[in-house]
Amino acid sequence: MSDYPKFVEIHEEGPREGFQIEPGPIPTAEKVRLIEALAETGLHHIQVCSFVNTRLVPGWADAEATVADFKAKPGIHYTGLWFNANGLERALAFRDKLTLAGAISLTASEGFTRKNLNRSHAENLAAMRKQTALHLSHHVPVNRIGVMAAFGCNYQGDISAAQVVSTVADGMAIAAENGTRIEVISLADTMGWAAPHRIENVIGEVRARWPEPTIALHLHDTRGLAVANAAAAMRMGVAQFDSTVGGLGGCPFAGQKGAAGNICTEELVLLCAEMGIDTGIDLDHLIEVGRMAEEIVGHVLPSELIHAGSLDAFRRQAA
Amino acid sequence: MSDYPKFVEIHEEGPREGFQIEPGPIPTAEKVRLIEALAETGLHHIQVCSFVNTRLVPGWADAEATVADFKAKPGIHYTGLWFNANGLERALAFRDKLTLAGAISLTASEGFTRKNLNRSHAENLAAMRKQTALHLSHHVPVNRIGVMAAFGCNYQGDISAAQVVSTVADGMAIAAENGTRIEVISLADTMGWAAPHRIENVIGEVRARWPEPTIALHLHDTRGLAVANAAAAMRMGVAQFDSTVGGLGGCPFAGQKGAAGNICTEELVLLCAEMGIDTGIDLDHLIEVGRMAEEIVGHVLPSELIHAGSLDAFRRQAA
Question: What is the number of CB-based contacts under 8 A between chain A and chain B?
């Protein structure tokens, strides 16, 4: 039995994830060039920057300049990322250009929360309660729960589906207290622990408890299983994925300095195209943009497809 | 519905595929070092060389020296590859050390047969008829049909399942004429055209026609979908795969000079391990050998896993 979707919605995070981790500096004009090129491929959701502490993430010291400079194309949702009140305030300055939305961002692993955020899960819940209220007070919707390390954790090992469900339940409680409705539950394989069975198990349990919200996946290709994981999720009807062009990004976490980044947008689009699932994206055009991304960062990116070329190019030659 | 196998048999082809395509030269002693290291990981099938025209494939000019030099471990099937009478003769010199077996090697794409072998399909059938008889006359079993370009072709485009069935039927006719029984049908995604639906479709059609032989897959990761394709095949009960440690190899065919090689053995073993499928292989040990392969060829290999490290290592730390 399979329940493949007819359309898969892809949220491109290459600029944000990629430029954050590159040793750089990458000129603002190059960031703008990539964002504008991505907008021409048929993508409708592009995360363009991080409003984060510029001391910790120098790659995004030019977040404001980048957002100010790119030419927005109508019909595309340009988004940003932030983690605190200061980041929200910076984002609010661009509420006409960016699609602003908050998330209740939690982690299924207490070990990761402590190492990454220097907080306990309870402290993180308190912070999210406050942040949700703050977003709503600024009329920024909070309709998404994000769960990091939902499939395993370098600091804590395997994460059970029950632990993910409990984490989502904590997020749902915060949403209920604030009178906001969760439309998307985003599960992140932050450190590359997922495999198809685990994907099926976790998504099955979350969906059994909350049948209504859209389930979105944020997959990393740390150990080469990301596309197989996406295929397993699609088979269950999952129809929303984050990805990065060229496989931009990487993994800053324990013992994985050389590891691959997010699932490649091109490979995800190829998977969909060959499965007869629409994404609205022109794959040949996207491959060109993947090659541009490689040129901008100045090193080989993990995407195999941008090096091999698309099947449609060969189909046209063979015809 | 799924029909996952309990055990997956992996045929390691890293030495043969990898050293054939590297610009090299790689010293014989290094080839021997890799072969002997692979034998300690739990692998039971290792393809160690190609007995091919040394003018065309200088990387295997030392095939004889390599086979003579490695120390064989009892219980392991060491195999070689050859395409003609001369290659068979060279292999026969090592029949005490190598497990010799012939294959009826066909291609589902007439375009590929012409470009790669400079023959028509009919001419290739005649050659295979002759070669099968020659093998049997030397008491070398021929129990395998191999079909290249079974999922698509750079020269011919999409390949239908009916075309694959017709190609296997041609091979079955040759086997019947020679009174030999086909035990394995090996389907190769020679140029990286497969996707999960296509895998299911082709395997379904071949199996419907010939329910008894084992179906084996030889997958290339040319466009990043190899692991997803392996997962789709395993879901149908496919339990035999060729692969290469580190993702050694590459794709010498039209327009894909920079493309990735075979599916990585480590990523296939990881997929199996996380799905609860036994391979008999020690993954942590195999990852070490993947890193050795990278050191031997002197450049980064496509395997993500050898760069990220295994999950079990993190599990032990977290425990």
Answer: 143
Whether residue B255 and residue A227 make contact (CB cut-off 8 A), yes or no, is no
pLDDT digit string (tens) for B15-29? 999 888 887 789 999
Q: Amino acid letter at A206?
A: V
Reading across the β-sheet that carries A77-81, which strands appear in turn?
Answer: A77-81, A45-50, A9-12, A240-243, A214-219, A184-189, A142-148, A102-107
Using left for φ > 0, alpha for ψ between -120 and 50, and beta otherwise, residue A46 falls in: beta
Pick the CATH number of A1-100+244-319 from 3.20.20.70, 3.20.20.60, 3.30.470.20, 3.40.390.10: 3.20.20.70
What confidence tens digit (pLDDT) does each residue in B189-225 have?
A: 999 999 999 999 999 999 999 999 999 999 999 999 9
Nearest CA distance, A53 vs chain B (angstrom): 27
Q: Tens digit of pLDDT for each residue in B4-14?
A: 999 999 999 99
- Chain-chain contact of A224 with B152 (C-beta, under 8 angstroms): no
Shortest CA distance to A196 belongs to which of A229, A221, A226?
Answer: A229
- Residues 254-273 of chain B with CB under 8 A from chain A are 254-256, 258-260, 264, 267, 270-271
List CB contacts (< 8 A) between B195 and chain A: 270-271, 274-275
Q: Is A102 on the interface with B (CB under 8 A)?
A: no
Q: Using the beta-carbon criterion (under 8 Å), do B307 and A227 form an inter-chain contact?
A: no
Residue B1 has pLDDT above 60, yes or no: no
**Distance in Å, alpha carbon of B267 to nearest chain A alpha carbon:** 6
pLDDT in tens, A107-132: 999 999 999 889 999 999 999 999 99
Give the pLDDT score at B252.
74
The mean per-residue pLDDT over the stretch A54-72 comes to 94
**What pLDDT digit, counting tens, does each position of B138-171 carry?**
999 999 999 999 999 999 999 999 999 999 999 9
Q: What is the mean pLDDT of chain A?
A: 95
What is the number of other CB atoms lying within 10 angstroms of the CB of residue A208? Answer: 10
Q: Which residues of chain A does B1 touch, with a Cβ-Cβ cutoff of 8 Å? A: 1
Q: Which residue of B has its CA nearest to A153?
A: B314
Give the CATH number of domain B1-100+244-250+263-319; options: 2.120.10.30, 3.40.50.150, 3.20.20.70, 3.40.50.300.
3.20.20.70
Determine contact, residues A94/A63, Cβ cutoff 8 Å: no
Report ipTM (2 d.p.): 0.95
Pick the residue from chain A with its C-alpha nearest to B310: A223
